[in-house]
Write the structure tokens for this entry.
Amino acid sequence: MKILTRILTLLLSAALLAAALCGCGGGKPVASQTADPTGTAGQPEAKSELTIGISQDLDDSLDPHKMTAAGTREVLFNVFEGLVKPDTEGNLIPAVAESYVIADTGDTFTFKLREGVRFHNGGTVTVGDVVYSISRAAGLETGEPLIAAFAAVESVEAADGQTVVIKTKEPYLEFLSYLTAAIIPEGSSPADGLVGTGPYKFVSRAAQENVVLERFADYWGEPASIEKVTFKVIENADMLVMSLKSGAIDLCAHLTASQANELGDGFTVLEGSTNVVQAMYLNNAYGPLQDVRVRQALCYGVDRQGILDLVADGKGSILGSSMYPAFGKYYEDLTGLYPYDVEKAKSLLADAGYADGFALEITVPGNYQFHVDTAQALAEQLREIGVQCTIKTVEWSSWLETVYQNREYQATVVGFDTSAAMTAQSLLARFESTSRKNVCNFASEDYDETYAAAIAETDEARQIALYKQLETILAEEAAAVYIQDPCDLVAVRAGVTGYRFYPIYVMDLSSLKIEG
């Protein structure tokens, strides 16, 4: 029962992640959800269509094992499924797998596959498909993992026709949350077509225009209600609102407060939590930002509540480090570390040799109006301490290349999420010095050593303490100017029901319905 307690508490938090994990470990299998494997029981007469506005196009590769953009994962969540998947309460529930067992040693994961799960191409999922998918993600053949966390995989084998055993190199209980990674047909790649097992199947994509999904009639679980969903790419924030008003789109998430306020009757605006860490991320390897005193000065020079009041009508949760409140037991409240203090900020800048301030360019993806608005508010505030900010808005594809991949920037305002793995670790992993996701070029031996110890730790209490220590290091070293976990505002046209918020950045189409 020790491992049962460990896993049950591992992925839950005091806020959104509050329900019990669906059992796991100690040799006790997780109970399967009741499902009709043919997907025909109670199947609705779905003749409806829905158009959803999105502010960015999908990644060009559309590879479910290589996805980097949260917006891509948000859409493809409906197309691909893993051995397990998240629910709205933050639980990991069986999906392609019917049940699973985690060994007491914490390094062996045994999955029994659900019978009758079909791919969108009509094929039935086999152990060979699962072994291939996990091996591909782990790079067992190439030596290059497609998903960083899968570097922990030592082996994946079929024990029999319905059972797959995954072994990690070391005890790694949190690895379960990464097994939401897509199961795809053996030998396939996205170049062969996007084939998953989710409630919707991929139909087409017109770059910078739209993505079309269609209800999958043979889905193993409860079938979706809406027959066809078109995601329309509208990068201009004003056009998004106009498209809602005109009836060109029926639903749009991640609106700013000002956008939502422009909508009149005929819409419901739902409020949830975005579950991202919005910050002004700093290139710690750039000029003045190499000095921790300069980075700390920027933190003192920002009035976070003022920003929330200005850009979000006061909605949202102020953050002090790279963890948001939904991960309750892992969350360390560090919001008081840098109270708004202009004189303290100026003093630190003077000590660092920048008594007259310096120029700072903030690169922002222009398709996210919320981040643009936040950057503008930051620029106004930082002018008070002598930092002259210029805002450079770029297209999303350009941001991915220049900022995220090449790290050719000074500062940027975006929000980072958990990369679809519901673990506190995933929010902290990107600051490890060798991480491919270390967009801040943050380098700290103390952080690296503490991170390694946290990942290897098998005692929950000690691991939580190490996670909080990591958060404290990031805050004290001012790796970024942490701002908020924004309120997520979703505009839904009258008659569209069933929208559900998740504790990760996804949009679940299967629950949506069109009434009347």
